[in-house]
Specification:
131 residues; alpha+beta; three-stranded antiparallel sheet; 5 helices; 21% strand; signal
């Protein structure tokens, strides 16, 4: 099993990089129990869940595979479609301000794009156990 790490990537490196109209530190955290890429991201959260359900020999390993996509626009679409917690966190903004934030995210993501495609930083925690 793998999960996105937390809190370093709480709102994703990509989302907050270069977004001038938004103070990411001031965003509220996702609602407790809300599904999303970071819902099991706290240290030991997934390991504890596995142990509570009978797994033994539970181990966590942090890896840093790059996120590779054809274009920065693909990463933006991935974030917009996949990260419901981000939408919840932005819900206090007006629709216009939300659009402004997403436009700034699109621009910020281009710094990870090169001739051979988009490659952004990523951190995953791989958790395993015996059942």
């Amino acid at each position: 099993m793998q999960r996105w790490s937390f809190p370093r990537l709480r709102t994703t490196v990509f989302f907050c990089t270069g977004v001038s109209s938004l103070d990411c530190a001031a965003l509220p955290p996702p609602l407790p129990g809300q599904p999303g890429p970071f819902s099991l991201g706290g240290p030991g959260v997934l390991a504890e869940l596995l142990e509570r359900t009978g797994f033994t020999e539970v181990k966590e390993t942090v890896i840093h595979p790059p996120l590779r996509l054809p274009l920065a626009a693909d990463c933006l679409r991935f974030e917009r479609e996949s990260f419901g917690a981000l939408h919840q966190m932005l819900s206090g903004l007006t629709a216009k301000d939300q659009n402004t934030v997403w436009e700034e995210v699109a621009v910020a993501l281009t710094k990870y794009e090169a001739a051979d495609g988009f490659e952004g930083p990523c951190e995953l925690v791989v958790t395993s156990g015996r059942n």
